[in-house]
Write a structure and sequence with these properties.
350 residues, DNA Methylphosphotriester Repair Domain, Arc Repressor Mutant, subunit A, 3 domains, four-stranded mixed beta sheet, 14 helices, 10 strands
């Protein structure tokens, strides 16, 4: 079931409001200029008789429209913001830098605007993102056999206690609790949409998540508890398989995943929902109501939404393919900007 665009009046009102909930789901072609835009484009709004609405950028291009140079409808909304591009470029160039709001202000940016923009697009502030990058560097030091103090220094923390607390919030355990020859191994997978944290045992993938997920540390602690705290850095085969298949997915050569997934977590109802999610073809979306009907429980929309939110293997169990009944993008633990981008990427798999 593909998302069907709402009526023209609804879409035009969304255009006037610059409603971000339709981002990645609807685009407007302006017949008087030959340009197509996001509904959130800051440009002057066209008259309704000059608007044509489309579901994808490809549909706009096929109809003869060219992409707007202000809202960049072919990329994500974050990719269209010069401030975001500048700060991310600086962060990529020096991930070890300890950024402060004073540093951001010194570049001529309003710090409150930076906070709002990054929270809206990435689910965290720029300062939090920079701190997370440093924590990842410290984690890699430990994974390569370094000492905790070395990891603390590499992560740019002056305080050992602050480093331990931040590390535990990100990965669920204190740095000195990571073990050699553990039952579970934790590692990072780099993707075009940011780093993901993967946990696997010898046989299956246990978790795959973007680190911005709220209460990620608590989620990891529950997984580790099943293994009686036996967790360390590194990869088993399922993580290697996941990394390879995720790379293929973003390269446009793989729409389905065959990584073995752990079957020991979640309730029977949650597992039923997750299995249904995996049956949604790439490039298609379902509403919560349609997903509830798909599993034969049409009145269980709230329970379906809850199970969708409890999924702990992002991307491979594609909870991003569930949207609001009106086509709007609803909550996603990895950030709505990622949900938008994943839906846009998967258009090629139709």
């Amino acid at each position: 079931m593909l998302f069907t665009l709402p009526d023209t009046d609804t879409l035009y009102q969304a255009l006037l409001r610059r409603d971000p909930s339709f981002d990645g789901q609807a685009y407007v072609g302006v017949t008087s200029t030959g340009i197509f835009c996001r509904l959130t484009c800051p440009a002057r709004k066209p008259l309704p008789e000059n608007c044509q609405f489309f579901a994808t950028p490809g549909d706009c291009i096929s109809a003869g429209f060219r992409a707007c140079k202000r809202c960049h409808p072919i990329g994500t909304s974050a990719e269209a913001d010069p401030m975001v591009i500048d700060l991310l470029t600086r962060l990529d160039a020096a991930p070890e830098r300890r950024w402060t709001e004073e540093d951001v202000a010194a570049l001529g940016y309003d710090t409150s605007s930076v906070r709002r923009t990054f929270r809206r697009n990435f689910g965290m502030t720029f300062i939090q993102m920079a701190r997370q990058r440093r924590l990842k560097m410290g984690a890699k030091t430990l994974a390569e056999g370094g000492k905790v103090i070395e990891a603390q220094i590499d992560a740019g923390f002056d305080s050992p206690s602050a480093f331990r607390a931040s590390f535990a919030a990100l990965l669920g355990v204190a740095p000195n609790a990571m073990q050699d020859n553990a039952l579970l191994r934790t590692d990072f997978i780099d993707t075009p949409l940011g780093t993901m944290i993967a946990v696997s045992d010898r046989h299956s993938l246990r978790m795959l998540e973007f680190p911005e997920r709220k209460a990620l540390g608590a989620q990891l602690r529950r997984i580790y508890a099943d293994a009686k705290g036996s967790v360390g850095f590194g990869r088993f085969d399922p993580t290697d398989q996941a990394a390879e298949q995720i790379a293929d997915f973003f390269a446009g050569t793989r729409a389905e995943f065959t990584v073995p997934l752990a079957q020991s977590y979640g309730t029977p109802f949650q597992r039923e929902v997750w299995n249904a999610l995996r049956r949604i073809p790439a490039g298609q979306t379902l509403s919560y109501a349609a997903l509830a009907a798909e599993i034969g429980k049409p009145t269980a929309m709230r329970a379906v939404a809850s199970a969708n939110g409890a999924n702990q293997i992002a991307l491979i169990i594609p909870c991003h393919r569930v949207i609001g009944a009106d086509g709007t993008l609803t909550g996603y633990a990895g950030g709505l900007w990622r949900k938008q981008k994943l839906i846009e990427i998967e258009r090629q798999y139709r």
